[in-house]
Amino acid sequence: MIKYLFGFLCLITSLFSQQLTWESPITLDSDTTNEIQLGLNNSGSAIAVWQEADGVFTKFSTDSGQSLSSTPTQIGVAGEANVRLTLNNSNQAIIVRLSSDTAKVVFSSDGGATFSSPTTGDEFTDVGLLGNVIINSAGKALILYRELGDFTVYDRRSSDGGDNWASIKEIDATPSNSTAPSLALNSSDKAIALFEKQSDNTFKTKRSTNAGVSWVDPTTDISGSGSSKSIVLNDSDQAIAIWASSGIQTSFSSDAGDNWTGVSLSANSSSVPKITLNNSGQAIATWIDLTASNHVIVKYSTNGGQTWLDPNGGEDISGASSSNPHVHINDNGFAIAVWKDTTTGNIYSKYSIDGGQTWQEATDGIDISSSTGSTPLILLNSSNKALSLWRGSAISLFGEFASGKSFSSMSFIRN
User: Fold this and answer.
1) What beta strand segments (E) does 3-152 contain?
2) Is 303 helix (H, G, I), strand (E, B) or coil?
3) How far apart are CA 376 and CA 322, in angstroms?
4) Helix, strand, or coil here: 50?
5) Which residues, 6+ apart, have CB-to-CB distance to 8 below 8 Å?
């Protein structure tokens, strides 16, 4: 039986006189689960969303996961999948899920305590591939998808936190291929859409300065093609795209996607790259190196992806065959990477308090149960509290650092 596990921890605010402590574990859910989504904001609100045979369910927290709502809330019926979640710092949240070719939307204005159907635009049809959904701090929201019939990329837009949605808008007439488009949106309403052209599978971007009201071509577009693409954009208008192709490739922009410059991170055969970027331009990339026994590799940047460096101690942070890495950095420069060890089946973590330059060795992995952990996610908020969610035993853990003792190392604990 596959279940969920939450891991919560509060990172240190200084290097010394801190020690990690943990609360008692909390059972989250006991049914067989599939897709997972995770949200955590700077107000301490947290939302977990998962899809199972009976439908789509959520639980929420108001204290970064120290306690959770007792009963799951069902927001979707059996057969709905491709679940997407977004949560902003004003406790506005949106969940989108797909039923056949129909996307269905619910929104929350209280951090996930309750969800409602929008007044207008609660469903839209002819959805072939659902991209991501993002809501910014002003309540502007965008949903990106590839249309079923003509394969072009469309968006749906809301300016009131998801209660009302404008008519669908074709953002580019170029047919895209059979991969979901990617989307990034910042607090000043700058947006970037990334997809692949059907004609030659090369990348194409569109950018917006008004949260999707209108879209234009960049002056200099991303050059490249590949798999596992994603894009991030911060409030300083710095953007980074990452993908796997003859290694790991990136492209950065310092003007919210108007001009792009490519930077190669690795020539080794690699897979599943992930990227995270904070508002100071600190970025961390992670991926699986297929030529290095599937180890987890990380590199960091201090200038929005213009240059990349190996961490102190080397770029290999797992030292073992692994899969599904995920990483997040907050605006304080605190970062956590999580992954599954494919030999033991455990979920492991390492953390950095200096923007990815130095990674601390975990004292133990997050041992879910025999070979059942998979697809871990990680988020941190501005209070240096972190939340991890993955498919495994349905246990929630909250941790924090207490002052008065010497700092040594930190990790999730064994269940």
Assistant:
1) 4-10, 18-22, 26-27, 33-40, 46-52, 55-61, 73-77, 81-87, 93-99, 102-108, 123-124, 127-135, 141-147
2) coil
3) 12
4) strand
5) 64, 65, 66, 385, 386, 387, 388, 396, 397, 398, 399
Q: Which of 329, 331, 363, 330 is nearest to 349 (CA)?
A: 363
Residue-level pLDDT, tens digit, the chain, 415 residues: 333 333 333 333 333 333 334 454 455 666 667 788 999 999 999 999 988 888 999 999 998 877 789 889 999 999 999 999 999 999 999 999 999 999 999 999 999 999 999 999 999 999 999 999 999 999 999 999 999 988 999 999 999 999 999 999 999 989 998 889 999 999 999 999 999 999 999 999 999 999 999 999 999 999 999 999 999 999 999 999 999 999 999 999 999 999 999 999 999 999 999 999 999 999 999 999 999 999 999 999 999 999 999 999 899 989 899 999 999 999 999 888 988 889 888 878 888 889 999 988 654 445 443 446 688 888 889 988 888 888 764 444 444 433 322 222 233 222 2
For residues 251 and 203, what is the distance between their CA atoms, to the nearest angstrom? 11
